[in-house]
Design goal:
The chain is built from 4 helices and no strands. The protein has helices spanning 3-13, 19-35, 37-44, 52-59.
């Protein structure tokens, strides 16, 4: 799994004012990803091919 994407996701979700807040946010993030490992794996899975229908949704006008 691409660890860089997981790290980016953590940085986007963890907002804090102090070290204690940061520790709490990271603990919540760890619990969240460990509770739903298949959902996380699907989100972080690297695609090796493009789905034409999905690509059409990205660029439709």
């Amino acid at each position: 799994m691409p660890v860089e994407h997981l790290w980016q996701w953590l940085r986007e979700d963890a907002c804090y004012d102090s070290k204690a807040d940061l520790k709490g946010q990271v603990a919540w993030f760890q619990q969240h990803i460990n509770a739903t490992p298949l959902v996380i794996a699907d989100r972080l899975w690297v695609k090796s091919h493009l789905d034409p229908q999905e690509e059409e949704l990205w660029f439709s006008t």
